[in-house]
Design brief:
With about 190 residues, this protein is an alpha+beta fold. About 25% of the residues lie in helices and about 35% in strands. Strand 5 and strand 6 (about 70-75) form a beta hairpin.
């Protein structure tokens, strides 16, 4: 079982930019193309997977982020217990999807760190380190995308009200954290 020590150092609060790690949340990667895959996912999650590029769908308990034509990330909207790495939803989906050869269900909870970034200048920070055009993205709540931020692969989710969630691989989290801190200091 993974030790849930935080991957980052506390909270950043500089020049109206607040960054903190959201931990622990369950994160599952889903892959599949078959109609039965989409039907089973919808029934088990009580959530339709987004089918349009760079979008997400949200229910009261889960968020589904579109990553590709046959790939999604499912995250919990609330924190989960720290004492275990076993999730009932993962087991349920694995039995209904992977075991029936309809698609793949992979637990990526320990692979990704979820950062929440708030503030009116967050898109200035992102634009300084990313080739992605955030002009339309920042105006659409629920927009998502995969991009490079300071040479680091990230998944970006617009939560609205100048709040963004970044998903970054655990091994790059401290480096990205430091870069965001430096950018916030220079605003």
């Amino acid at each position: 079982m993974l030790n849930y020590k935080t991957a980052t150092n506390g909270e950043i609060n500089y020049n109206g930019v607040v960054v903190k790690e959201i931990s622990p949340t369950m994160k599952l990667n889903l892959r599949g193309k078959k109609r039965e895959f989409l039907t089973n996912i919808g029934k088990n999650l009580n959530l339709l997977l987004p089918t349009e590029a760079n979008t997400s769908t949200i229910s009261d308990k889960l968020t589904a982020i579109w990553l590709g034509p046959d790939e999604w990330m499912i995250i919990t909207n609330d924190l989960v217990k720290k004492d275990t790495n076993e999730y009932q939803l993962n087991d349920l989906l694995f039995n209904d999807i992977s075991k029936k050869n309809l698609g793949a269900v992979i637990d990526v909870t320990d692979q990704f760190v979820q950062l929440e970034i708030k503030g009116k200048n967050i898109y200035e920070i992102f634009s300084a380190g990313s080739p992605f055009n955030f002009n339309e993205f920042k105006d659409k709540k629920g927009s998502s995308g995969q991009t490079i931020l300071n040479h680091i692969d990230v998944i970006v989710l617009n939560k609205g009200d100048e709040i963004v969630n970044l998903f970054v691989r655990r091994s790059f989290a401290k480096h990205l954290w430091s870069w965001i801190k430096d950018c916030a200091l220079r605003l």
